[in-house]
């Protein structure tokens, strides 16, 4: 027998295993750990005053993301939001737990008028936000627009975002492969989703559905023929939750960390020994800095993560 047979070559090509090692068991380990700890996901709704943000928070929780029981006396009007408010629900489906936190914010600007274009304030707000979080724009109160107006508004927003270099989720730069690109292009075509919010249930064909009752019928928020709320929910929860979290961690948090490290380095006087001031790594920093990298230096050029152009 060749005595070198069990040696692992340092390159990662052509490595053959002589016997079962059990690598596949790592999947079971991950599953068990995830079932135990569950997922966490944080969402924040922002926008002009009176757009329907608080209603959307309720819609998300009462839609199939989590069915929340409502009493017959559930009639109260949603008051104007005056401070930041977070609601957390632990949702469980087939043994998988998810802690979903939705943060509602007070609206900015005046109460909405019926002008459907993005104003410089909206564009600047989105431009700044898109550098620190994943932004998923939506057209609120889509039931107040005709189908033509919806389509025109959508096109206009897509054009404005492009013209102002605002990169919303899913960002083209972060498509991992051609399959991702094909799937994400379909989503990008549909963004911003035209959604309708409602926190009341109505009886439709013997079923209770979330919707807005009008003189002409009920606009069902979970009916894809009525609005694009189901697309939004599926993107956030069913298809892209992990990707949203990964981009938040690897891109947004990383650039925030770099910025803070740079700021602290600038703020501290130069060390008498001629070294850069040494930062005591916090637990989070330790986590990121595990390995051979020099943890005392902020990561800049050599960052292995995507950075914003
Ligand atoms: N037609 C229609 N009205 C909606 C929709 N969503 C919310 N509304 C109504 O719009 C009004 C304002 O809704 P809110 O959810 O309080 O709006 P908000 O964005 O939280 O407002 P602020 O807290 O002041 O920023 C309420 O009367 C809602 O019933 C929608 O999808 N369609
Ligand atoms: Mg509100």
Description:
This protein has 309 residues and is an alpha/beta fold. The chain has a domain at 33-247: 3-Layer(aba) Sandwich (Rossmann fold). It is built from 8 helices and 8 strands. Strands 1-3-2 form a 3-stranded mixed beta sheet, with helices on both faces. A 3-stranded antiparallel beta sheet has the order 6-7-8, with no helix packed on it. It has a two-stranded parallel sheet with strand order 4-5. A hairpin with a 2-residue loop joins β6 and β7 (207-214). α6 (229-239) crosses α7. The chain is globular and about 70 Å long. The termini are far apart. The model is unreliable at 3-9, 71-75 and 274-309 (pLDDT under 50). Residues 49-55, 78, 80-81, 106-107, 141, 143-144, 196-197, 212 line the site of guanosine-5'-triphosphate.
List key phrases describing it:
309 residues, disordered N terminus, three-stranded mixed beta sheet, alpha/beta, disordered C terminus, 8 strands, Rossmann fold, three-stranded antiparallel beta sheet, 8 helices, binds guanosine-5'-triphosphate, binds magnesium ion
């Amino acid at each position: 027998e060749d005595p070198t047979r069990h040696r692992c070559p340092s390159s990662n090509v052509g490595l053959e295993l002589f016997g079962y090692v059990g690598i596949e068991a790592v999947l079971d380990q991950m599953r068990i750990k995830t079932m135990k700890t569950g997922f966490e996901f944080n969402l924040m709704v922002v926008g002009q005053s009176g757009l329907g943000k608080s209603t959307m928070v309720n819609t998300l929780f009462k839609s199939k993301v989590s069915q929340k029981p409502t009493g017959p006396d559930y009639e109260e009007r949603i008051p104007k939001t005056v401070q930041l408010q977070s609601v957390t629900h632990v949702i469980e489906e087939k043994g998988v737990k998810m802690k979903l936190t939705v943060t509602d914010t007070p609206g900015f600007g005046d109460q909405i008028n019926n002008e459907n274009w993005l104003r410089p304030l909206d564009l600047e707000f989105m431009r700044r936000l898109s550098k620190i979080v994943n932004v998923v724009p939506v057209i609120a109160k889509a039931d107040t627009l005709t189908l033509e107006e919806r389509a025109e508004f959508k096109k206009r927003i897509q054009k404005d975002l492009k013209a102002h270099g605002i990169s919303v989720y899913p960002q083209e730069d972060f498509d991992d492969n051609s399959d991702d690109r094909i799937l994400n292009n379909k989503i990008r075509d549909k963004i911003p989703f035209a959604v309708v919010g409602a926190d009341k249930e109505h009886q439709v064909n013997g079923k209770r559905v979330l919707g807005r009752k009008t003189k002409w019928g009920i606009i069902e928020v979970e009916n894809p023929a009525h609005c694009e709320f189901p697309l939004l929910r599926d993107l956030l929860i069913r298809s892209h939750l992990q990707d949203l979290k990964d981009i938040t961690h690897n891109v947004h948090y990383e650039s925030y960390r770099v910025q803070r490290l740079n700021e602290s380095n600038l703020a501290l006087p130069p060390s008498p020994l001629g070294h850069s001031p040494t930062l005591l790594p916090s637990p989070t920093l330790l986590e990121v800095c595990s390995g051979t990298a020099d943890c005392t230096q902020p990561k800049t050029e050599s960052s292995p993560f995507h950075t914003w152009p």
